[in-house]
Amino acid sequence: MPDVKLVNVSKRFGKIVAVDRVSLSVHDGEYLTLLGPSGCGKTTVLRIISGLTNPDEGEVYVGERLVNDVPVEERGIGFVFQLFAVFPHLTVWENVAFGPRVLGWSTERIEEECLRVLRMVRLENRIDAYPNELSFGELQKVGLARAIATGSKILLLDEPLGALDAKVRGELRLELRRLVKDLGLTAIHVTHDQEEAMVVSDRIAVMRKGRIVQVDTPPRLYSHPENVFLVNFIGEASFLEGTVKNAGKTALVVEIRDGSIIRVSGKSFRIGDRVVVALRPEYVKINAKGNVGLNRLHGRVERTKFVGWFTRVEVRLDNGDLIVVEEPMSNGHDFEVGEDLALTFRPRDALVFHYPEEGLQRALSLE
Amino acid sequence: MICRVVMPLPEVKLEDVMKKYGSIVALDGVNLHVADGEYFTIVGPTGAGKTTTLMVIAGLVKPDHGSVCIDGRVVNDVLPEERNVGFMFQSFDLFPHLSVWDNVTYGPFVRGWNPEVYGKSAREMLELVHLAGRFDAFPRELSGGMQQRIALVRALTSGARILLLDEPLGSLDAKIRVELRYELRSLVKDLRLTAIHVTHDMEEAMIVSDRIAILRKGRILQVGTPHEVYSNPTSLFVINFMGETNFLEGIVKNRGENWANIELRNGGNVRVTNGMMGVEKDVVLAIRSEDLFFNKRRVGETNSLSGYIEGSKFISGYIRYEVRLDNGEHIILRRLASRNDSFKVSDRVTVNFSPEKVLVYPCPEGGLERALSPD
After folding, report:
1. Is the pLDDT of residue B360 over 50?
2. Residue B277 — pLDDT band, cuts 50, 70, 90?
3. Residue B95 and which of A71, A229, A282, B12 are 20 to 30 A apart at CA?
4. Which of B128, B287, B314, B336 is most worth mutating to test chain A (most A CB atoms within 10 A of its CB)?
């Protein structure tokens, strides 16, 4: 059963269309992320769900109920801008009891509910501590406990980990998902960070220019992006432009810029179609020995960068295209700028798209 | 005889720099030597003293003790504007009444340079940061991320030979941040500038830098090239700060000249070939999540520990597995996602790793948690 449902929701600010006919179903207990570049409308969607912003068109449902005209505080939704924005001068208990007090609950009900919530996040032994005495993990729990203390089962999170160090953020996002799942909440999380989205989500809705372009699980989104924008936005990719020379049921022969031929897997293409072939850096192998696939491209190392567990090698192909390869460190070879090498990849590891009408550059643009 | 003018080297040197704010020690004896043309990064957690270090170099904060040298001369008493450094701080202040174009060409304009030359490079840089189309916009019309990119271009075109960059990519969208770090390094190198860059992001540091200094609690723990720091982290803090690492506590059981056997506290044996220590010494073993491998069948070989998969998570092309070992330890293993990966949650697995990949540290006195904590 969907817990939150948007049907054809639009919102304009003056001439700017911030949200453009968005439809979305978030299931009970699901962790869904709205992911997109700055200005794509993701925060506006979140505000529309919360009731802080009214849509110009479309319907918003929470559970079975149409809530377009229901005020913020009656939607049963916890809204978190930043998980760590707790009141520094209040104890854990006072922070969590803040919302219920504002709602004018009886002392007994506040006691009961706050204790219940604090037990759920396992902070019942820290109720008298002040925020500056807590670890990041504990602060995150206070932020969550506070958001759900008034009985919300739906949690809206707007860049909740934005203000943190990379290292801490990496640890807390795993913990955040675990907590949301343990507490049985439905979460809708907004971020611009692909890795964060992949770690926390059951499904990701990618937004661009006010519209949802794909909703899928993290692995599906990575392996089956529906257009070139997505392949570039979710992970990294290099692009080869070409024309279909031969098309079988699932196999294509593509001629790229200098007349070289590559073989890729792809359906619903016809001879003569202009295509873009996208290669993920981890699927391209350098100087692989033996029969490692039908595709072999020659080029020269243009730039290399040691990044720890892999080396990133940028290779300028003979036809002028640039291919990025991630070579695992355990392979032990140091690449020199200017070195000649051969790149190989398997047909099924390439992603093929129709050449975008607006041109490749515009199709990839993050603006 | 021709008298050659020796140009001063744009290098930066800090010697034993101390700075206190009240009772808080922000910098506790910092020594640094950044060479001409070097891309140098200071990385560390919040509150480590990174920004204070930059402010001391810029002349915006006076050290309590120690000396700051730029181009071979002590500049402790030299005003910020006379130090010939360009900086970009987190509160990047663009000139609000000037357009994007006037902002990024302000430095060379004031210096009276040839507009044809600086105009061309400014245009190229605006293209690189995806803002060429907004050259006539005013700062207030741009988002925070766009303003940051403009501030970065302005710092690069300012004409200063030494650049101080405080989280220059901090408020950008993740995708643009990842893309720009490669470009930022290339620009600094092409322009032959010396850069000192501050970040809390180790991956960013690895990508942009010639050398990295890891700062913690006002002290530099280690300085080295990305390769040196990665292959030989000198402390538990540094290896943990670099990425997801597994720590196993144990005791040295027996050893030869270049090997030792470690008995794990929770059971199991590990052979190591690094960081030799005496028999009966308490040690902590550190193994990176990417240096562990799965094996479904073979058990009983050197450095194989068995357990079951407790969780898995797909993250941009790789899979992060959580494994519960039979000895109770919790291990993180990361591998490239291949399309026929057959490892599932609750599968029994054997985790293998090679002895050379195990880093050995003496057991820290205050305990492991304290050794890894940022403060």
Report:
1. yes
2. confident
3. B12
4. B314
Which residues touch A287 (CB under 8 Å, ≥6 apart)? A333, A341, A342
Is the CB of residue B130 less than 8 Å away from at least one CB of chain A? yes
What is the dotted CATH code of the domain comprising A231-364? Answer: 2.40.50.100
**Taking CB atoms and an 8 Å limit, are B290 and A306 in contact across chains?**
no
8 Å CB contact of A167 and B244: no
User: Which range among A265-274, B32-41, B185-194 shows the weakest confidence by mean pLDDT?
Assistant: B185-194
Q: What CATH number has the domain spanning B238-372?
A: 2.40.50.140
Contact A167 B200 (CB under 8 A): yes
- Residue type at A135? S
Q: pTM for this one?
A: 0.88
| Cα gap B214→A124, rounded to integer Å | 37
Could you please report the per-residue DSSP string of B18-71? Answer: EEEETTEEEEEEEEEEEPTT-EEEEE--TTSSHHHHHHHHHTSS--SEEEEEET
CATH 3.40.50.300 residue ranges of chain B are: 12-237
Q: What is the ipTM of this complex?
A: 0.84
- Contacts of residue B293, defined as CB under 8 A and 6 or more positions apart, other chains included, come to B333, B335, B351, B352, B353
Q: Are A165 and B226 an interchain contact pair (Cβ–Cβ within 8 Å)? A: no
Topology annotation, domain A4-228: Rossmann fold (3.40.50)
pLDDT at A86 > cutoff 80: yes
Q: What pLDDT, in 10s, does the model give residues A233-261?
A: 999 999 999 999 999 888 999 999 988 99
B298-333 tens-digit pLDDT: 666 789 999 999 999 999 888 999 999 999 999 999
pLDDT exceeds cutoff 50 at B1: no
Question: What CATH code would you report for B12-237?
Answer: 3.40.50.300
Give ranges for CATH 2.40.50.100 in chain A: 231-364
CB contact under 8 A, A309 and B290: yes
Q: Which residues of A lie inside 8 Å of B (Cβ-Cβ)? A: 37-39, 165-168, 170, 174, 192-196, 198-199, 218-219, 222-223, 233-236, 280-282, 303, 305-309, 312, 328, 348-349, 365-367
Q: Does B344 touch chain A (CB under 8 A)?
A: no
Classify residue A76 as exposed, middle or buried by CB count within 10 Å of its CB (0-12, 13-18, 19+): middle
Residue limits of CATH 3.40.50.300 in chain A: 4-228
